[in-house]
Amino acid sequence: MLRNTSPFDNQQLMRRQEDLINAASNRYRITVQVANRAQRRRFEEFESYDDPRMKPVLRAIFEMSDELTQPEIIGE
């Protein structure tokens, strides 16, 4: 019996990804932005011990979609 040990819901991930793409004026640019954030997060993980089960690209998608839907969490 396999258990789902993933810290996120696949449906939620797909919805957030779709929200990011729909809000972007350029699909290529948003894809590059997600990849760049994921790369930064990957290097930051060496310094902090966040949830190791969540890959940096997934974390980037969740963070960026949160910023899109909740702009108040982005500090000036």
Oligomer: single chain
Task: Summarize the amount of helix as a percent range.
Answer: 55-70%
The N- to C-terminal Cα distance equals: 48 Å
Query: Strand share of the residues?
Result: under 5%
Shape: globular
Radius of gyration: 13 Å
Q: Unreliable runs, pLDDT <50, ≥5 residues?
A: none
| SSE sequence, one letter per element | HHH
Q: What summary fits the major beta sheet?
A: none
Number of strands: 0
Note the topology.
Elements (H helix, E strand, L loop, with lengths): L9 H14 L3 H18 L11 H14 L7
Helix pairs in contact: 1-3, 2-3
Describe the overall structure.
There is one protein chain. The protein is an all-alpha fold and 76 residues long. The chain has three helices and no strands. The chain has helices spanning 10-23, 27-44, 56-69. The model has no long low-confidence stretch (mean pLDDT 78).
